[in-house]
Inverse folding.
């Protein structure tokens, strides 16, 4: 059974540290101007710090230059490609053929990975990209498992295959969409998507027997979410994905919180390891239960199991999970079981918390028995997020490490 890479999103250096702590083999991020998540990307200093940190752990960093570039963008692309090569990034993710040429010339020591935005859905196209310098293909999400197997069987030797396993889907084909540009003037293909497919739309139909009279079509009083997709979740399919020979399993979410990254990466890490170590007793339900504790939409396998699947739109427009939220992050131990944490939501004596422990799918549940003000040491009943990096002291009935994530049960 081949080793599969678990690839995590990282919109900041702190998120990269959390991803590695909870079991990611590699992270992917972007640059502020040249990737498709321009609002969450690493500045140059943080990127250099992230690369050095990852390499100290024996882990990898992939950086996206995956916009569809206008000609006036290419001078910046040349500078960025050369800088990434100098920093020693492990791979550059590219969608545009012209940018591939630039990366080959200006970053000759760096792997080229072809983005899912390139719509690669056949082994013929995989092999085209391999002949033009690519070492990995991130397949389009529209493929089913039989098509993926066929690609793996017929691709060139040495060419890696990466697929998305979890996270947001969009209305566009492999992420290509002009809706945002058309309606808000913010191009999803240049890194500034306004997530127009999540908006509520007003839809009207003309009465058959009364031409010219328009009747509203409503899901609820907030409107109709005709484009909004459920979130991809392939946790149940881990055995088949590993067995078919996929090289890398990718988690979407560079705009998500540290809590989301910790929960999702920990679930997929433990699922992968448990299946590899004991395939006969693999039970996906406990991992799915953890995934459902994040703030998410409905979950779908999209086309992976069935090209005719129609159950992947979420017409309610809701985000689920009203039971849990990001509680805080461990800063350090103070002795006597007292822990300094950085809070993310209101905490009160009596609240039920869950400590997400790296490598363990079952979180440690405990109640807040006491709270102390971190500056004065005064005992308090409640703490609310206020100033930046609000901290509080509480007790946790186990040894902890810096960076561990705590969720609060509402």
């Amino acid at each position: 059974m081949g080793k599969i890479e678990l690839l995590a999103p990282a919109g900041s250096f702190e998120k990269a540290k959390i991803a590695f702590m909870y079991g990611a083999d590699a992270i992917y991020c972007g640059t502020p101007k040249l990737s498709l998540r321009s609002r969450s990307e690493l500045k140059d200093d943080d990127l250099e710090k992230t690369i050095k940190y990852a390499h100290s752990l024996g882990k990898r960093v992939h950086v996206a230059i995956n916009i569809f570039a206008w000609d006036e963008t290419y001078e910046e692309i040349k500078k960025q490609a050369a800088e990434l090569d100098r920093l020693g990034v492990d791979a550059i993710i590219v969608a545009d053929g012209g940018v591939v040429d630039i990366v080959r010339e200006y970053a000759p020591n760096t792997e080229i990975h072809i983005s899912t935005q390139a719509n690669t859905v056949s082994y013929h196209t995989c092999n085209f990209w391999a002949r033009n310098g690519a070492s990995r293909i991130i397949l389009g999400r529209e493929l089913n498992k039989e098509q993926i197997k066929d690609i793996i069987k017929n691709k060139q030797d040495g060419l890696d295959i990466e697929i998305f396993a979890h996270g947001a889907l969009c209305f566009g084909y492999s992420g290509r969409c002009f809706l945002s540009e058309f309606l808000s003037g913010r191009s999803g293909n240049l890194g500034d998507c306004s997530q127009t497919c999540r908006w509520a739309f007003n839809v009207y139909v003309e009465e058959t027997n009364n031409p010219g009279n328009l009747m509203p079509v409503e899901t609820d009083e907030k409107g109709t979410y005709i484009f909004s997709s459920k979130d991809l979740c392939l946790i149940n399919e881990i055995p088949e994905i590993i067995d078919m020979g996929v090289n890398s399993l990718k988690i979407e979410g560079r705009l998500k919180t540290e809590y989301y990254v910790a929960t999702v990466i920990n679930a997929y890490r433990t699922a992968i390891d448990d299946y590899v170590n004991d395939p006969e007793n693999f039970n996906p339900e406990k991992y799915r239960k953890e995934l459902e504790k994040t703030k998410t939409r409905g979950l779908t396998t999209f086309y992976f199991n069935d090209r005719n699947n129609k159950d992947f739109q979420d017409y309610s427009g809701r985000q689920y999970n009203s039971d849990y939220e990001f509680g805080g992050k461990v800063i350090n131990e103070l002795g006597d079981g007292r822990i300094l944490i950085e809070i993310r939501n209101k905490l009160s004596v009596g609240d039920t918390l869950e400590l997400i422990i790296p490598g363990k799918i079952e979180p440690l549940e405990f109640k807040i028995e006491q709270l102390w003000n971190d500056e004065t040491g005064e005992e308090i009943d409640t703490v609310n997020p206020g100033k930046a990096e609000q901290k509080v002291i509480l007790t946790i009935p186990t040894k902890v490490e810096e960076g561990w994530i705590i969720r609060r049960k509402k």
